[in-house]
Amino acid sequence: xxxxxxxxxxxxxxxxxxxxxxxxxxxxxxxxxxxxxxxxxxxxxxxxxxxxxxxxxxxxxxxxxxxxxxxxxxxxxxxxxxxxxxxxxxxxxxxxxxxxxxxxxxxxxxxxxxxxxxxxxxxxxxxxxxxxxxxxxxxxxxxxxxxxxxxxxxxxxxxxxxxxxxxxxxxxxxxxxxxxxxxxxxxxxxxxxxxxxxxxxxxxxxxxxxxxxxxxxxxxxxxxxxxxxxxxxxxxxxxxxxxxxxxxxxxxxxxxxxxxxxxxxxxxxxxxxxxxxxxxxxxxxxxxxxxxxxxxxxxxxxxxxxxxxxxxxxxxxxxxxxxxxxxxxxxxxxxxxxxxxxxxxxxxxxxxxxxxx
Length: 357
Fold this sequence. Notes:
Elements: H1 3-16, E1 21-25, H2 30-41, H3 55-59, H4 61-64, E2 70-77, H5 86-90, E3 97-98, H6 107-126, E4 131-134, H7 142-148, E5 153-154, E6 160-161, E7 169-176, H8 196-200, E8 206-208, E9 211-212, H9 218-224, H10 234-237, E10 240-242, H11 246-249, H12 276-280, H13 284-290, H14 300-313, H15 319-326, H16 334-351
Helix pairs in contact: 1-6, 14-16, 15-16
């Protein structure tokens, strides 16, 4: 089959499967590896040790999946059209803010299933071929690959940005042994002199343009970190209990952002604007039931209670908040107890009451 025609068919099939765009790349640039090495050397990956593993696999796609010649990079919008407005939830400290990508079905499952469906369509047209789907699940430099595939530029907040569709999308890749025409890389950086994302970061995690220190990033602190959240960073978390979208919400390019084209991302269980006290009352069985098939499972139940406790500590003083916290003061987990104690002290401070003990 003519590779140029097949490439155009793949783009069309990708759109039919709900992807916002698809492009073709060979490998990341050496400069991308150099930036990764410098980031790791500075310790900015925090406790994410896996980021330092398998560097060779990131550099050489064929080493990760033997026979790889062309990488099909895809992106998919995730903002649910029915979700409560993000800024309104962030402005209400009695409610918990969950990053908009995590309100519905786990995006890993959504994209992986559709990438496999795309592979089946390719196979039906072109015959059997070697392939493997990845969605943030292996040593893949997904944003540099997406840039190389012409899907956008990497912005100052380190997320991929498309000039007509913003940055509120997730990425996936299909490594293939097909010889398809590579797209021209997206060469121009349209960030200009804008520093909106840097200025908006609640914890100062964007330490320089294009450089994020994960150890200060709210997404890292509320999702990847397994231990205590550093105390100086707890107040800046506000009511963000899973991830953070601030750098993208202020990005001027997201005035063009599109909503999700698939129903998988629709909010579940009212999690687009949930009351913090209600979330803190969940027992572990409820947590597991209401996060089934969701990215929220990543925190684990203890991490969930830790995050909600911090948000309750940051909430306006309220007897109902204090009562919810006291109900967990003797929780079996030392991690939860410590964050509950901090939250109770914060509630007392906000009331102007003397600290307990």
